[in-house]
Amino acid sequence: MKLNISVSISLLSLILVGVLWTASTHDVFAVTACEAIQANGGAVPNRKCIRKRDLSRDVVRNVNIDDNAVGSAEVINNSLFDVDIADEAGVDYQSGTAFIALTTTDTTIRSISLTAPSSGYVILTASGTFYGGETSSIDLDYARCSLGTNAAIDLSAVTYFIERTNTQEMGYVPMALTRVLGVGGASTLTYRLVCDEVDGDVSLGFTNLNGVFVPTRY
């Protein structure tokens, strides 16, 4: 009986010393049932044997997880939200119905700012309606719109409106642009729908500009 009591007291002392040492050095002192089984060469009985109460805060970091080790099958539905993800997708948009008379000066019709948390891509879409009001028989209604970061017409992503003005055969004409641009790293970028008038009497209304940040190209 005395021997058993002595052994028990000794074990209790060792446990207390281990706890105090762990607290003082901020190291993690946790051995789960799974780890104990694996250490003895046994198979882990079920996937849920390590629970959140077995792990201290911040004990598992991204450097501890192999690439592609966690897939959709390992994540419970509705268990993660945008605040849990460092580089989640984001969106910004701007729209309006008023018709704006275009001039030969490049004009920013709509603009948005996206704060990207990491490198990735921005998907831009823009739409609107051109209206040609010129009635001269010797002239054209001719306008352009582009989509990107420039405050001037960007000829790498541009659409045109051209109408012979002596007949006004088209009148209202829909306009649409789509573009994908890369983001080099965490940053805030401004994207613009820029338009001008080359000739005639053109206005643009019912405009929309949308931008979506996505971290990965699949």
Short account of what is shown:
This protein is mainly beta and 218 residues long. The protein has two domains: 2-77, no CATH class; 90-214, Jelly Rolls (Sandwich), CATH 2.60.120.
How would you describe what is shown here?
This protein has 218 residues and is mainly beta. The chain has 2 domains: 2-77, no CATH class; 90-214, Jelly Rolls, CATH 2.60.120. Helices cover 14% and strands 39% of the residues. The strands form 2 sheets. Strands 1, 2, 4, 7 and 9 form a 5-stranded antiparallel sheet that branches.
Notable traits:
single chain, 218 residues, mainly beta, Jelly Rolls, 2 domains, five-stranded antiparallel beta sheet, four-stranded antiparallel beta sheet, elongated
The string of secondary-structure elements, in order, is HHEEEEEEEEE
Specify the CATH class of the largest domain.
Mainly Beta
Unreliable stretches: 1-31
Strand content: 35-45%
> How many extended strands?
9
- Straight-line N-to-C gap: 68 Å
Question: Would you tell me the overall average pLDDT?
Answer: 77
Radius of gyration: 32 Å
What is the 3D form? elongated
CATH architecture type of the largest domain: Sandwich
Helix/strand class: mainly beta
Whole-number total of structural domains: 2
Please give the largest β-sheet.
5 strands, antiparallel
Tally the helices: what do you get? 2
CATH topology of the largest domain: Jelly Rolls
Report the helical percentage. Answer: 10-25%
